[in-house]
Amino acid sequence: MNNFDFSRKASCITLSNLEEDVIRAEIDIVNATANVAVSLSAWRAKFCKLWHNYHWRMRHYFYLHLFVFFCNTLICGVIVWGIEQYKIPYIDCWFLSATCVFTCGLQTYDFALLSRSSQSILLFYTWISGITVSTIPAIFIKLYRVKNEIIRSEESETRTSENDVLPIQRLVPNQSIDSDLHERIHSLPSPHHLRVTAYILMIVLILSTCFVIYLISFIAMGIWLKYHYESKALLQSNATMNPFYAAIVITITAFNQNGLSPWTSGIGLLVNDIFMNIFIIIVVMSGTSLFPAIIRGVVVLFKTIVPWRYKIFFDYILLNNHRLSAVIFPSIQTRLYVTITILLQILGVVVALILDYHNSNLVQYKGGTRFMIFMLETANTRFGGYATTDLSLLAPGTLIIFVLLMGVKPQMLCAIDETPFEMEWILIQTQQKLENKVSSNNRRGSIQIFLPFNRVKHYLSRQGSLAKAQASNYFSSIARRTRASQAINQLHEKRLQHRLSALSFDTYNHSRDDRNRPLGYISFLRMKLLLIIFCRHAVVSLFSLLVSTRTWLFLFIFLICAFDSYHMTPVDPSITVFRVIFEVISAFGGCGLSMGHPNVTSSFATLLTVPSKIILILTMCMGRHRGLLDSMKDQEEIEYSAQTLIDSWQQLAVLEQIEKKKSLAEHQSLPILSAAQPTSSLITKF
């Protein structure tokens, strides 16, 4: 490069050490920034790829539900702690929040001693976390997916008029479809509209049913407390309790299985009030055991009273039931659920009557009052948490039965799926009716309507052929695998014999003392294989044991006894192992019953240490979410297709039109003076 006779300074030609260090530092900063930018962009690309490849499943809602509920307990605890101006320990505020969110009822601080603001916050969290209302977010998620995603198992929304009419014309070739039938068929919704409307109806029905139960309970108990109790009887902290406020507290906590009371003594002042006891039992059972039957009855009622074109929406809900929402069960399972609940109620009452009817601690009550006490306590062992007397006064046998009732969840005893043959039977019956009405009017037509022998015969023959084909494929595959395994075993035996012969020849040449080495080596291999199989089964059994509910309950009971051993029996005779077991099972069952302690007005958990209270919170969380994962797995698939149901209703419309024309023709052919005979009722499930 030419200098053009310019004179340069030395500082322009060479850099000082300080300037060189500064430049290198700046270069290092730029390189480090570039490296960070590259790594962040790489992480962003990985995250975007993971997000685009993510596929939502309803089982993921279980983990989301668990995370949100646990966070709600912490947030609600902080709010109550702040409202009470930090006078109550945070662990007690958290425990009260957990008992409201997890719908349990145990309390380490008396709910009645809190301020009205804290009580309102806890009641709000109780309402949104109830078993009925908390299922609605899952329905919203499914509704969003139905609106924005394509479901392969269902057909698309677009349908032409030819697709609606042509199948019906093939079913009834000799009959012309009039305008009324054509309009009736076209009034049926599309598959997409049917699915979306069914989810919206489920949300509306659940909320409206809960609102009606809340309203009836609130008005009935509020009016009863206002006009049948004096102001002195409703005192709390030397202040008169508003009867309608007490009614709304009891309504929300009873329906959502909390058992919290606006009075320090619980609902002990209502022990002689038969009306309030019966009403509390009904509200408690309506929020748990009876709600699936109630919501199913509401759906059936609306299906009966709505016009024909809207009946298909409720039929879709009844057919898919627990596939749509966790609060509606199949018909068989609903009957078993209610039956088992009634049997458990009878068991608890009968045992209590046998063991405690002549209990000396209950002599101050009349016979009818004792019976009502046992009825209320047995109903609350299922999920309520209310108690009109001290449970520690009852016989040990009665308390053992109460522990059994608290630990058993009745819907787990009747987890039965509806048979797939039911839908096939309905379709076969409908097709047989069409054939009987269109083809001939013989005398056996009415019998064949209810007993479609030919259709059933063909169906069973098809199923038999299919079963034979599957059996032949299965046994042929087994035979192929057997032959292959035999060939492999023969090859292994030949290789083993060859190796043994080579080893024996080698050992014979080297030393005659080592002739038994191959046998010892085989014994070593057998022992090694036995150890591997044993370790594998041990690991599987250990994993099954660790995920078992009984294991965790035993561990929780052991830890609580270990943490509180310093003041248990014989230091304090009222703190026993059985009381700890009763408290843990009550927390797991979500019922909130407690044997209490003479020195506290709240639950027995008040006397436990902080680690024991945290363990009880975890127990409540585990009990609240049991069975939810299996329920969400059931909702990942729709059992009955919307398009199949629409086709069935089209056939039903044709059948009703044919019967209507036939009855009209018979009526016109009869003499004027003769009375018209009523036509046989159409018996279908739709």
Nutshell version of this structure?
With 686 residues, the chain is an all-alpha fold. The protein has helices at 10-13, 17-53, 59-83, 90-101, 116-128, 136-148, 161-171, 179-186, 191-228, 243-255, 274-286, 291-305, 311-320, 331-356, 367-382, 396-407, 421-439, 445-450, 453-510, 517-546, 549-563, 577-589, 610-624, 628-634, 642-669; strands at residues 235-236, 239-240.
Main beta sheet strand tally, sense and closure: 2 strands, antiparallel
Q: On the 0-100 scale, what is the average pLDDT?
A: 76
String of helices and strands: HHHHHHHHHEEHHHHHHHHHHHHHHHH
**Fraction in helix:** 55-70%
Q: How large is the radius of gyration? A: 36 Å
Outline: globular
Strand content: under 5%
Roughly how many Å apart are the termini?
97 Å
The number of strands is: 2
Which strand order do you get reading across the main beta sheet?
1-2
Q: Which segments are poorly predicted (pLDDT under 50) over 5 or more consecutive residues?
A: 1-13, 150-175, 413-422, 440-453, 510-516, 672-686
Helix/strand class: mainly alpha
Task: Tally the helices.
Answer: 25
Using brief descriptors, characterize the structure shown:
disordered C terminus, single chain, two-stranded antiparallel sheet, mainly alpha, 686 residues, 1% strand, disordered N terminus, 25 helices
Describe this structure in words.
By secondary structure, this protein is mainly alpha-helical. Among the domains are: 135-152 and 185-418 and 631-664, no CATH class; 421-512; 516-546. 67% of the residues lie in helices and 1% in strands. It has a two-stranded antiparallel sheet. Helix 6 (136-148) runs antiparallel to helix 9, helix 9 (191-228) crosses helix 13 (311-320) and helix 22 runs parallel beside helix 23 (610-624). It is globular, with a radius of gyration of 36 Å. It starts with 9 loop residues before the first helix and ends in a 17-residue tail after the last helix.
